[in-house]
Fold these 2 entries.
Entry 1:
Amino acid sequence: MFRRLALPAALLAAVVTLGTAPATAAPAAPAAGSVCFWTGAGQHGSSWCYTPPGYTDVPEFLHDKAASFRSDADRAVYAIDWARDTCYHRLIRAHDVADNWAWGARMDGVSDTTMGCEVG
């Protein structure tokens, strides 16, 4: 009799364990000195991080599609938009956060300088 109950109890425990999905993890904070960008609002979706110095193009999946960002950099960085015959920059202040960032729909790259671009 005990053996009959042991198997169903074990199956029940397995089903309960499998049926309980872990809560969605909060987005990870950027590494010290980095600025991370996400394709979704509220720091969700696919992400990529930039660490100064220098200029870097954003990956194709994020090109003109950044919806949010979080900075853990101790310095300002600049989102860069390459337009026809000119470029524009948008300041991202040290330790700034934007959960719904409209300007990210223009972002082509990130730099630690304005790259000589106009304010956008």
Note: The CA atoms of residues 17 and 23 lie 13 Å apart.
Entry 2:
Amino acid sequence: MKSVVRKAAGLAGVGMAVAAMSMAGASAAHAEPATHGCPYPYVCFYVDEHAYDAGTPIAKYRDVTSSYQAVRSRPHYHVVNTRNDDVAYLRLQDGNAICLPPNRETVFSGTYSVTGIKISSSSIC
């Protein structure tokens, strides 16, 4: 009788492990696709159109911060925000900032440089 109870308990444990693996596989199958090499939940910077088309960002940021994180000052061609619910504030070299809404991207001319990024948990600019 004791061996039957142990066997049933062992099978229940195996069933729970299989269920946990199935749920893990299901969540991995629903992962957000990368946009131009920028995976969720990042904001990515591309140095030029070639890097953007090739999906090779020069920098990626994902932390929500209360102040700006430094971004190497250089002209950037594209900035992509793959976050679903968070905006990204981009500080320009002249001190002004623009807001990049969730799941959006922006293109800069060669005269602008982004010097800082602040990701906010706000979903609207």
Note: The mean pLDDT is 77.
